[in-house]
């Protein structure tokens, strides 16, 4: 009993203050005094070009997403005889958590695009400055390229041993699905036609695009800001688990940056193999534009978006009132949400507009 009293007097509960407390309540911690920020540091940070910070964040974010993903892929391909070191589930979760950590780490600085298609559709639908699109895309590809180089260096011995084994078996090209080059970029199976591959890539990327746009919708009651990175990451993971065996790419930057690494170490066939590379590199863009257009035209509820503070009417409060009057929507006459999960969540949270 004396020991228990002693522990209680230590007030160890003070140590529980940390990330959760800071995120939820944003008050000063009582364990450690806040560090003084010097004027020199503030001047340095103010002097940094914004474009440089944004490029660094986009490159770092793509690196955080691609690095664990292709490392898990390397483990999967290089340890086929020992399932403990690699599986498709492992690859899917590596990409999923990589995307979540990329958003958590870098999105506050650049907005967290990490995909040229996402940058392009933000320019189309959200007014993202067109002048920023080229350097965002360059940074994204560069981040993927650096991730590929570093993973190749870390797995160099295992990749070299795999290459030696394949050559001993009479394999002359290292570029094929399941080969060393496919650690870094996707390649089709021998029986797959380009049309077949296009359809696979288009629908997989459209699926991810719709999920991203729904997660970012302020009127969506199911995803809190803190959960958005993981919801987006899991959409990628779901597609990897469903379609990786029949070849998908999902991201122009991821594919092109790492395909360049594959070309450096395994030859130009990384781009010419079965004329597939254009599908892996480019289809993501029109597919994502299709997905966001589909969501905007058929699923977007801008009135709900305005009611949640995610947008304002172009005519201000007066314009919004005029719309509600013309539409016959006011007070208790507001049309009820369709019965189901959304209705229950809205009613419970008290967010439903009346």
From TrEMBL:
Entries under InterPro entries matching the protein: Aquaporin-like, MIP, MIP/Aquaporin, MIP_CS
Membrane topology: Multi-pass membrane protein
PROSITE patterns per UniProt: MIP (PS00221)
Location of this chain's protein in the cell: Membrane
Keywords: Membrane, Transmembrane, Transmembrane helix, Transport
Family: Belongs to the MIP/aquaporin (TC 1.A.8) family.
Protein name as it appears in the record: Aquaporin-like protein
Source species: Neodothiora populina
């Amino acid at each position: 009993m004396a020991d228990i009293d002693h522990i209680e007097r230590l007030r160890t509960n003070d140590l529980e203050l940390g990330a959760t407390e800071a995120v939820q309540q944003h008050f000063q911690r009582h364990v450690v005094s806040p560090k003084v920020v010097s004027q020199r540091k503030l001047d340095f940070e103010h002097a940094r070009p914004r474009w440089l910070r944004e490029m660094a964040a986009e490159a770092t974010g793509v690196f955080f997403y691609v690095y664990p993903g292709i490392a898990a892929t390397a483990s999967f391909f290089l340890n086929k005889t020992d399932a403990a070191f690699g599986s498709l589930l492992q690859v899917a979760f590596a990409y999923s958590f990589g995307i979540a950590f990329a958003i958590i780490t870098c999105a506050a600085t650049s907005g967290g695009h990490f995909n040229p298609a996402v940058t392009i559709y933000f320019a189309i639908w959200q007014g993202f400055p067109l002048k920023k699109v080229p350097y965002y895309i360059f940074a994204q590809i560069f981040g993927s390229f650096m991730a590929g180089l570093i993973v190749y260096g870390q797995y160099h011995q295992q990749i070299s041993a795999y290459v030696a084994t394949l050559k001993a078996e009479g394999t002359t090209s290292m570029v094929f699905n399941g080969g060393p080059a496919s650690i870094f970029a996707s390649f089709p199976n021998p029986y797959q036609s380009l049309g077949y591959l296009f359809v696979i890539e288009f629908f997989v990327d459209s699926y991810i695009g719709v999920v991203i746009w729904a997660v970012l919708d302020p009127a969506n009651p199911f995803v809190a800001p803190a959960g958005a990175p993981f919801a987006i990451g899991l959409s990628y993971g779901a597609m990897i688990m469903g379609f990786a065996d029949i070849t998908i790419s999902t991201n122009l930057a991821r594919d092109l940056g790492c395909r360049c690494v594959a070309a450096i170490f395994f030859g130009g066939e990384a781009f010419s193999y079965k004329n597939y590379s254009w599908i892996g590199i480019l289809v993501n863009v029109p597919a994502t534009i299709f997905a966001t257009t589909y969501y905007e035209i058929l699923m977007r509820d801008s009135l709900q978006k305005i009611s949640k503070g995610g947008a304002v009417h172009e005519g201000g409060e007066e314009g919004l009132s005029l719309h509600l009057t013309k539409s016959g929507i006011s007070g208790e006459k507001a049309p009820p949400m369709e019965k189901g999960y959304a209705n229950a969540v809205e009613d419970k949270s008290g967010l439903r507009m009346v």
